[in-house]
Design brief:
The structure is a single chain. The chain is mostly helical. It contains four helices and two strands. A two-stranded antiparallel sheet has the order 1-2. The longest helix is centred in the C-terminal third of the chain and has 38 residues, at 82-119.
């Protein structure tokens, strides 16, 4: 094992940090945007609460990515500890993947519910689900 193995994991972690920040920004833009159809029904608005745990999982993915970056620097500065650092970085990398994937599932659930309610808006038209 050498520094390049640790650096490869750190590079992957940095990609997930970038995606996490983009997903947080995109979901905030979705909530605060005025140019798309918004649910009128109060029960349908509750699906927006799914953003909260998704943001927490994305924040955890960012946090673990930061830990991985620090471990990568540690491996560069102290190459004789690479086997121990590789074990730690592998655990953190797995934790980051789990957090990121859970966030993606939660955001996917929101998207599916939003799209289904939008597609079947005519079916629920007497309940007026969306405001224009």
């Amino acid at each position: 094992m050498d520094v390049s193995s640790v650096h490869a994991l750190a590079t992957g972690a940095n990609v997930r940090i970038t995606w996490s920040i983009a997903l947080i920004g995109g979901s905030l833009a979705t909530i605060f945007s005025t140019s798309y159809v918004k649910p009128f029904n109060k029960w349908l608005k509750l699906i927006y609460l799914i953003f909260l745990p998704a943001w927490l999982y994305l924040a955890d993915a960012i946090r673990t990515g930061d830990i991985i970056s620090r471990l990568d620097i540690g491996a560069i500065l102290n190459p004789n500890r690479i086997p121990m650092i590789f074990g730690e970085i592998n655990k953190e990398y797995n934790d980051q993947l789990v957090s990121f994937n859970i966030a993606l599932v939660l955001l996917g659930i929101w998207l599916i519910v939003f799209l289904l309610s939008w597609v079947f808006n005519d079916f629920f038209s007497k309940n007026k689900l969306y405001e224009k």
